[in-house]
Design brief:
mainly alpha
């Protein structure tokens, strides 16, 4: 296909994440780490047998879970995807490999340690 007059396809800017997949993998891994930190902090803050807080206190107490769960669920797959894109394209390979490694270790820690110990206790 040849370019026609008035064609702007070549003038479009590509998204930052596509130009820098290794850095995007690292950013996504950091988001996932923040998410698991919030969720794990929420799980550790649960006291069985403690006095239940009022409605506003209950909402405030669940904010780490509300914020952390989407960060974790979106950050892990994004980090792994960007790590794969970095390896396939060869761009920013160190960042992609580091982000993928952090995401894989984080996923294993979540599945092997956090969910059986704290997740099923709820």
């Amino acid at each position: 296909m040849t370019a026609q007059s008035g064609d702007v396809a070549g003038d479009r800017a590509t998204p930052w994440a596509l130009d820098h997949p290794g850095a995007a993998a690292l950013v996504s891994a950091l988001v996932a780490i923040a998410g698991i930190g919030l969720v794990a902090g929420w799980l550790l803050a649960q006291y069985p047998g403690g006095q239940p807080p009022d409605m506003l206190g209950s909402l405030w107490d669940t904010m780490p879970l509300i914020a952390g769960l989407p960060m974790l669920l979106l950050g892990l797959p994004a980090a792994l995807g960007f790590a794969g894109a970095s390896c396939v394209t060869g761009r920013e390979l160190w960042g992609g490999v580091t982000g993928g490694f952090v995401s894989a270790v984080l996923s294993l820690a979540l599945v092997v340690v956090v969910l059986p110990v704290n997740g099923f206790a709820l």
